[in-house]
Amino acid sequence: QDNLKGLTIGFSQIGSESGWRAAETSVTKQQAEERGIDLKFADAQQKQENQIKAIRGFIAQGVDAIIVAPVVATGWDDVLTEAKEAEIPVMLLDRGVDAPEDLYLTSVASDQVLEGRTAGDWLVKEVGDADCKIVELQGTVGSTPAINRKKGFEEAIVGHANLTIARSQTGDFTRAKGKEVMEGFIKAENGGADICAVYAHNDDMAVGAIQAIKDAGLKPGTDIKVVSIDGVPDIFAAMVAGEANATVELTPNMAGPAFDALSAFLADGTQPAKFIITESKLYTPADNPQGEYDTRKGLGY
Amino acid sequence: MKRLHLERLANPQLLALAAVLLINWALFPNFFRITWQDGRLFGSAIDVLNRGAPVAILAIGMTGVIATKGVDLSVGAIMAVCGAVAATMVVAGYPTPIAVTAALGVGIVCGLWNGFLVAVLDIQPIIATLVLMVAGRGIAQLITEGYIVTFNDPTLIFIGTGSLLGFPMAAVIALVLMILVTLVVKRTAIGLFIQAIGVNRSAASLAGINSRILLMLVYGLSGFCAAIAGILVAADIRGADANNSGLWLELDAILAVVIGGTSLLGGKFSIPLAVVGAIIIQAMNTGILVSGFRPEFNLIVKAGMIILILMLQSPLVGTAVGFFKRDDKRVVSK
Amino acid sequence: MKRSLRPLAATAVIFIIAYAASVLQFPSMLSTRVLGNFLTDNAFLGIAAVGMTFVIISGGIDLSVGAVIGFTGVLVAVLISWLGVHPLLAFVIVLGVAALFGAAMGAAIHYLKVPSFIVTLAGMFLARGGASVITQDSVPINHEFYSAISDLMIRLPGGGRLSFIGLLMVAIFLLGALLAHRTRFGSYVYALGGNPVSALLMGVPVARTTVQIYMLSSVLAALSGIVFSLYTSAGYPLAAVGVELDAISAVVIGGTLLTGGYGFVLGTFVGVMLLGLVQTYIIFDGTLSSWWTKIVIGVLLFLFIVLQRIIFAASAPGEEKPEKA
Amino acid sequence: MADSDYVLEARGVMKIFGNHVALDNVDFGLKAGEVHALLGENGAGKSTLIKILTGAYQPDGGGIYVDGTQVSLDNPLHAQTFGIGTVYQEVNLLPNRSVAENLFLGHQPLRFGFVNFRKMEADARVILKNYDLNIDPSSELGTHSVAVQQIVAIARAVQLSGKVLILDEPTASLDRNEVERLFEVVRGLKAKGLAIIFITHFLDQVFAISDRVTVLRNGKLIETRALDALTRTDVVRLMLGKDIAFSGATDVEPGEAPNEVLVEFKGYGRKRSVLPFDLTIHKGEVVGVAGLLGSGRTEVARIMFGADPADQGTVSVNGKPSAIRKTTDAIKHGFGFCPEDRKAEGILGDLSVRENIIIALQGKLGWFKALNRDEQMEIAGRFGESMDIRAASLDMPVKLLSGGNQQKVILSRWLATDPAFLILDEPTRGIDVGAHAEIVRTINRLRDEGMAMLVISSELDEVVAYSSRIVVMRDREMVAELRGKNINPGVIVQAIANNPDEAVA
Ligand SMILES: Nc1ncnc2c1ncn2[C@@H]1O[C@H](COP(=O)(O)OP(=O)(O)OP(=O)(O)O)[C@@H](O)[C@H]1O
Ligand SMILES: Nc1ncnc2c1ncn2[C@@H]1O[C@H](COP(=O)(O)OP(=O)(O)OP(=O)(O)O)[C@@H](O)[C@H]1O
Ligand SMILES: [Mg+2]
Ligand SMILES: [Mg+2]
């Protein structure tokens, strides 16, 4: 991998809206450092237009390669064509784009629908035949992960008539909103007595929901099951305390595989797989949450 | 005496609040059911008070700013900064009172900075506070280094989630703050001076009001209120979330003040009514939550409500219910 | 030089100095590519900011701009991709919808006497909510008309491109300047911002003008939404969140007073370019973390405003100037 | 019914604000080719009638007739289409726009749909020539003095008036030459058959130019009469409903030894504003300041009060050297200041009359010694009584008061602080005869009580009436100090005009 040493690579990151995102940024920087890459980092503050600007800026600067974590899937054709014309390879992180495949080298991403399905499958197994009223904490309205994780989860529970989603509201991917919405759900569902499980599109909202459940005098993890996605340290801490039941890991190390692919490509022109799917691993309290917590703590979550 | 009371009840803010609560009640019959649980009151109506507290607190500071014909866009960012300060300090092992005091101090400093830009450098308030709105969140993230800084400090957590006489701490703090600030403003000449500056700053200065110091003070108060709100929000989730704490809350606070009847053109203001405005907004939000609307409709419902409330308050409709209006038939000197 | 033109000159001078300083540090910032990108990448912001300039000169503010951009983008995409409407017809439809929307806001501001801040805030919720009710997904637009327009560009030596949308923005700025400074409507806008009571007594048709101003702003925001959809070949309900604040900053940096009555459309152009310069500089630097990016943008914003203040402290509008007949 | 040789007519017009009847069943008819004076005390309803005649307000009863047919005027623009041009009482122009644009707003000459600036400015230059105003039409209106703005407002109204010209106190801020100019223009228009309504508090001017006069009192029509049958005393009696003794020049005992020194300015001045001056003010004396428009009188007042701090010279108060850097410094020394531009710098429009009166006193007391509502009411009521402020209620916003009453409110504001030294810039501008005499009386009374005052006024008769001493300003410099016998209009004019080449406008 020495052939990456001294290269300049531009990294257009979405922003720093969540702990997971911050972890991805710091892991990417770490990976670049290990390989001796000069990483040019541009934060887009959640705006696609800023990402396009950043990519154009990288092209104008003449970087050797570009990695992008696209905020949405659409709208990349023009700017990627421009990069191609300038012969700069582009790699996509954590989400694909709706653009011709020849416009980018590879896309390293998780399968968000699978994440939702994994969470759903776990819950289906967990409750068995018992009736289960689920409340759902959605991500930001209209964001891709929210749409996909909802879809995957619904796919998993469809055909299991005993599992129903009773209520679904957006918690904006944040702890505070997750807590507030869960409070509302508890009031709306007979003081929480009717709720069997909460499914949160990310761990932060789950952490907020856990607090709301405790404030309502119920036991999270027991009275109301908690399942969520991301695998951030705090959800493992909650598992240790017996307050969370399951999480699906989304690895923040997307850049590593991307750099590897680039290295191989630059060395002898090896075309990497177009879609590198990262693992969506399910964690439950049986998977040594304390250990997971400790290994993740320093990653910048 | 009785008549005065009736007139009070007829003011548009309270009417709007009643309307929103009625709608909530219609959509969710258990809305007013309150039970006693673990030594405190528990129910949707209590949630409204609890969740509405941060915006209410912001609105208290914002009212002063708007009365001087200004606006403070930075309060959301200041919340994030102060929450971050308090959280990182307790995590670093400082005693809670020191951490809280430091956070409040930082809030005041942020506010004074805004005041300095507005009063001394004469920069337009919207743009002066935009600076801190943009940079402040960055500062907050710098403090937390992008993490959500979680803590387990019992005192701080009590501030966020504890209760006093069954009422949530946040609501109690908002109420106390409202009473204190209202008293200070009413019992001293500060309120009058704030109005004078808002109505005509050059005339006020010629009449011997030191508008610079007063403006600094008003923005400082807004920063202080933002700091309290920031600490409350962080304490509530036991963590300082620099990215999301207070995000877009400045708009809610401004909305609350305007719903409370204070004109964005400066002048007459009412702090208690701004707090009522904040409660109205939160009642709306909680109503959306418990009623089970699909989240895509949240914003539309909210927009519809705002339009409704503003129609209720507009002078056009106001003349129709002018019958209730108070100030028309007062003392006639001759 | 005319006193009122000085803030404009100031902003331009600041831009040139800042640009020169950036070029000294990163010589490649002088390329035609970067200059072309300035126009293309800021096209939608610029077009929206023209409308915002009118609103602010009239003493109001329009917070709905970003949401209208998002809404029109979605509407255009849905019309074209789902309903098979030809893009040109789709453009006409969304511009019409936006005109109605703006007119409604203007009418509410004038007749209900509600401050523009609040009316347009409600408008923002409405437009953003409307967009996410239509669809939550990002809807791609694949139409030959769209690809034809993206291919429409002038290539400059050195890899630069003058794109259609970039040139459209320049054209809108020129038209906006003409409208503001050379027509009766323009003078009414300034009149409203200067003193609405006087304006009424002098015979300015206040109601009509107010409605027209917000119509103009919404129509330009819709045009900006169309440009945004050309820029990204898609419509997305969360597109352009917070663009109104960028537009307001650009307008104010361009020397327009938020209190109304004073300002220049072309100043806004320089303001937009300044914001673009800041972003480009940060990208070229490439070492700033997410949070330092925010702080630096804030600090630069502050520096620009203070610089403007310092240069023009002696000649702020309204100040007395000795003059003898 | 009135015959329709009236070009503009109001029949039985009513206007009610809240529960205050501003106009009560007023008839008013205007004939072509006449100058019709509309008279009445402050708050009599003159401006309100004008606003109804021009569509700015809608009447609550009665009707408006143009050439005998009833019309409903929706707004001033609508009135303009009938050829009605108006100068409203407070200068209602756009300070942020050029002089030319203010003249032509709404009627700018167009070429290909765009405003033709060259033609507009050339036309403006020609129009302003008629008023001897030689200013750059492209300059911002706000950079000019109130007087210049007033002339521009008149010029605009004249341009717009095809049939009717309405002038609501146009001369309040003009000097004699300018008034004479205006009258020439008015006579010319009258000769062309225009109908002109003229409101003023200067009876001389009424007699100089008017043909008929209508008098309002407390919103009621008292009488409309041909002027040649009336004497000044008749007019005053009609206005007030009683006789007043108009106090002419009070005799200032010339030989009297001056009291102790209160304030002493030495080499006091400010760059680009006022050349350094020396001035000593004693207790119990009134120093009048005379000079042409723009001679720097207002600047002197502002420097003394610290509104624009001096950058040279020294000041001592009660013999002690002092520093007056801000207005609060001045107030601490017992200064008070009624500014010239009452709308922009005087009143706090949205606040109540009561709050406007106590604000300076409260400012002096500081933040924590707040006057409670009863105390405020007591103080405001006291001054409301003694200054005869006509307001429906002390709680109504001061901006709804008539101009003259606003002026009294501001004067009361300072009297409430019990000042040692009061600076008054044009205190009688826009004030009716009754109130005028009252203010002159008040000034005299205050002087006798030992207060020192500096009074700026363009009314030479008036300055003469109360001044113990008069300083004359020319071209931003104090050029003369007149005492004793020299205090008479002739000498003052001489002093002002000493160097006629430099006279402004
Ligand atoms: N918009 C308003 N709302 C309430 N009261 C008003 C309003 N406008 C005028 N008034 C009241 O109506 C009365 C008549 O006022 P108006 O301005 O017509 O007097 P005026 O004769 O022009 O006096 P002046 O000579 O001082 O200008 C006053 O008592 C005034 O306070
Ligand atoms: N006729 C005029 N043409 C142009 N500028 C003028 C004219 N009259 C006054 N000015 C300007 O307006 C400003 C006002 O001056 P200032 O107010 O000190 O004069 P003043 O003596 O107080 O006159 P006023 O009687 O208007 O109060 C000055 O800067 C002066 O140069
Ligand atoms: Mg009047
Ligand atoms: Mg003057």
From TrEMBL, chain B:
Its main location: membrane. GO terms for molecular function: transmembrane transporter activity. Coiled coil: none annotated. The chain crosses the membrane at residues 12-28, 48-66, 73-92, 98-119, 126-144, 156-185, 213-235, 247-266, 273-293, 299-324. The lineage of its organism: Bacteria, Pseudomonadati, Pseudomonadota, Alphaproteobacteria, Hyphomicrobiales. It is a multi-pass membrane protein. It comes from the Bacteria. This is Simple sugar transport system permease protein. It is found in: Cell membrane. Pfam families: BPD_transp_2. Keywords: Cell membrane, Membrane, Sugar transport, Transmembrane, Transmembrane helix, Transport. InterPro entries: ABC_transp_permease. One of its GO terms (cellular component) is plasma membrane.
From TrEMBL, chain C:
Signal peptide: none annotated. It comes from the Bacteria. GO terms for cellular component: plasma membrane. One of its GO terms (molecular function) is transmembrane transporter activity. It holds the Pfam family BPD_transp_2. It is a multi-pass membrane protein. Its main location: membrane. The keyword Lyase does not apply. It is found in: Cell membrane. Keywords: Cell membrane, Membrane, Sugar transport, Transmembrane, Transmembrane helix, Transport. The chain crosses the membrane at residues 36-56, 63-82, 88-109, 162-180, 187-207, 213-231, 264-284, 291-312. This is ABC transporter permease. It comes from Devosia psychrophila.
Automatic annotation (TrEMBL), chain D:
InterPro entries: AAA+_ATPase, ABC_carbohydrate_import_ATPase, ABC_transporter-like_ATP-bd, ABC_transporter-like_CS, P-loop_NTPase. CDD domains: ABC_Carb_Monos_I (cd03216), ABC_Carb_Monos_II (cd03215). Keywords: ATP-binding, Cell membrane, Membrane, Nucleotide-binding, Repeat, Sugar transport, Translocase, Transport. Residues 8-243, 257-500 form the ABC transporter domain. GO terms for molecular function: ATP binding; ATP hydrolysis activity. It is found in: Cell membrane. This is Simple sugar transport system ATP-binding protein. Belongs to the ABC transporter superfamily. It is a peripheral membrane protein. The keyword Repressor does not apply. GO terms for cellular component: plasma membrane. It holds the Pfam family ABC_tran. The keyword RNA-binding does not apply.
